[in-house]
Design brief:
By secondary structure, this protein is an alpha+beta fold. Helix content is 49%, strand content 13%. Strands 1-2-6-5-4-3 form a 6-stranded antiparallel beta sheet. The protein has a two-stranded antiparallel sheet with strand order 7-8.
Amino acid sequence: MKYYEHGDKITVEDIDSFDIEQILECGQCFRFNKLDSKEYIIIARGKVLHIEQKDDKVDFYPCTKDDFENIWIKYFELDRDYMEIKEILSKDDVLKKAVAFAPGIRILKQDPWECLISFIISQNNRIPMIKQVIKNISEKYGEKTGDYFLFPTLEQLKKASTEDLMSCKTGFRAKYIMDGVKNVSEKTVNFKELENLPTFEVRQKLMKIKGVGEKVSDCVMLFSMDRKEVFPTDVWVKRVMEYFYFDEKDTKIKEIHSFAEEKFGEYAGFAQQYLFHYARRMKIGTK
């Protein structure tokens, strides 16, 4: 990968395993607007970023060299060798197909606070509605920058009441958001401290928040805490695992997790993303 600055743009060339459409549309984040098949606006890390991909070039703007090196390289994991990861996972015949279907997926390194609240909102919800609810909350409590609103900080969201959040179309999730705010505010959940804890302890800490179960905690760990060994399992992942690995038999999530841990090990989170996107797009396991 090589990149250069010109005007308010950073242009990246020779970037492997990067497809902005596959990255954003694979269910791991919700703050983006699609302008074209390979052109998006994303709101993340306190910034509004325009990304346009053409052939082997990707433009990031407005973006300085400093922001690219200190924010976006980490956010898009451009310093991680995905070719090696895909080669390892493709030794499994199923993963070989899933990887080939969307070879440009990368797991984003999101802000843990925003990721936590976003995946609380995601429970039993469709992606368009998740995006709308997050947009509503951001417009009500977040800071405006240009035409967009940033996701509210902890201090900003502390001003919310359950009724206020309900007016943002959160539904039953409002009380869970309020408990998330409470736990993070009181440092029962301290993201800095979680960085140094074993994964199972991080999961237990996150699950102290009402409404946060294993799936939501695993999503937060995978998409914001670099815990690539976790294997978030929702209905789509459960279906694809049963379809390909368990003779289409109804299988307990605990058994699926044990299988994923043994088969994919430290790469389980990557495997989950390829499988999730593949299953959802191909409607695998649906009758």
